[in-house]
Prior knowledge:
Radius of gyration: 24 Å
Domain Dihydroxy-acid/6-phosphogluconate dehydratase C-terminal: 414-607
Structural class: alpha/beta
Binding site for [4Fe-4S] cluster: 162, 229
Pathway: Carbohydrate metabolism; Entner-Doudoroff pathway
Helix content: 25-40%
InterPro entries: 6-phosphgluc_deHydtase, Dihydro-acid_dehy_C, DiOHA_6PGluconate_deHydtase_CS, ILV_EDD_C, ILV_EDD_N, IlvD/EDD_N
Strand order of the largest sheet: 7-8-12-11-10-9-13-14
Cofactor: [4Fe-4S] cluster
Number of domains: 2
Amino acid sequence: xxxxxxxxxxxxxxxxxxxxxxxxxxxxxxxxxxxxxxxxxxxxxxxxxxxxxxxxxxxxxxxxxxxxxxxxxxxxxxxxxxxxxxxxxxxxxxxxxxxxxxxxxxxxxxxxxxxxxxxxxxxxxxxxxxxxxxxxxxxxxxxxxxxxxxxxxxxxxxxxxxxxxxxxxxxxxxxxxxxxxxxxxxxxxxxxxxxxxxxxxxxxxxxxxxxxxxxxxxxxxxxxxxxxxxxxxxxxxxxxxxxxxxxxxxxxxxxxxxxxxxxxxxxxxxxxxxxxxxxxxxxxxxxxxxxxxxxxxxxxxxxxxxxxxxxxxxxxxxxxxxxxxxxxxxxxxxxxxxxxxxxxxxxxxxxxxxxxxxxxxxxxxxxxxxxxxxxxxxxxxxxxxxxxxxxxxxxxxxxxxxxxxxxxxxxxxxxxxxxxxxxxxxxxxxxxxxxxxxxxxxxxxxxxxxxxxxxxxxxxxxxxxxxxxxxxxxxxxxxxxxxxxxxxxxxxxxxxxxxxxxxxxxxxxxxxxxxxxxxxxxxxxxxxxxxxxxxxxxxxxxxxxxxxxxxxxxxxxxxxxxxxxxxxxxxxxxxxxxxxxxxxxxxxxxxxxxxxxxxxxxxxxxxxxxxx
Length: 612
């Protein structure tokens, strides 16, 4: 059971945390016992056979080999998602040498233990490869476990940023929960063409008012250099979450790549990983550290910043690996008490660089702590509880890394605000339930007058079908677009962002428009009301498969309901609509993932192939 909740914590926050702890008691205890047993066995490399050890350091330099053979220093695993196609991950190319140097300075060794795949949803968006995207999270978790399975390491650092990559790395790290784990970001790219201007060009292209040349030029100005995309989608939500959950160094998330401060933070992160192994007096195993309080802090951060809806899947799956049972009801209840403190695109015009400059994570954490909406008495990789994360890094005059108190006031109240005067009193996420099942909706970017939409259904089995109808001029008046057979069992649950420009155009023409889908949209979803992650999905017998064109659908983000207004007797006689899913099961490697589609769980349990 979690430790007692201090009286300074918001009462409902405490109640939710205690409820999660009670619900998770048996599974959490079994997990903690397992990692404690692994820790008791101590560092494994000295117990390996001589041939095993020799294989493990055969390629090392003389000094590193001597330390691994005879020394008492730590061996640090580097698990990297580096590739030079992803702008966010390209800076990681130089990180291993920085980390090795830091490890040697601490009397140990660092080795690249393994690489994990890192696909870019921005490249695969609307393409067949997007149907592998969500499954790549579990592949990354498996690859992480393989990397660490040599059992020659005392701690690990994880190099990853983007959508499914960080959650996959966390799941893999928790499978070796007796090891300390430090996550090292690379930071966002510098600001280019504003996200708002980019969205306008996309909409003009959807209307046929500008050509592909203009669209490509705008996209190239927006995505122009190394670092994460600057909008507040899943990648940057990952960084927020790693910081507020204590897996980053304080203030590390949004420092731009290839700067002296970024390099200093990378070095310091490696040094800290070496300092918190079981070989010293400050042992912080990641499986013990990521407890119920830490996951609640992560969910609160998600709501307060208006982060990605993908985390209603990822956080559930991550927590389950640590024996913690989170539910969408927990997300919903925490959203009710968490104020929205940030307006970062698509919830506003600013990008993450503006957010960081206006106060960033240190300011948000200070405000949430002051309001009693975070647990401050948690373990972190830095130590000192969550209060240490109200500080921000800087370079001293001699070039060394130092920390200073973060700003106590917002640098721009159009971007970030204090808890006493938020943008809205509740978080930007709402749980929907009703006779169509359960779904989530991101309300923080939607105008209040669009929080309730009641209109006839237009049913599609792919986003391409909807786009074709739009181009043909067949979408007129008010309607709810139902795009089904997009769930994890059907085709891997792709993101459906190509729906947003045409639906946005129709909404701007004065129509009442909404989307209902068992697929995903993530943190980049914008102004159109979208009930996503509908579960049960159509391919799993969900009621969404019973909807017919013309059925009246009500999406109510105020009451939290998702209903179909059809005579109950008529509804009871319906049979699920057939769908040909075969084209989504072959090509671009999709045939290799048949076992994933067969084994994957429901969206509300994390859409994972692992037992939860």
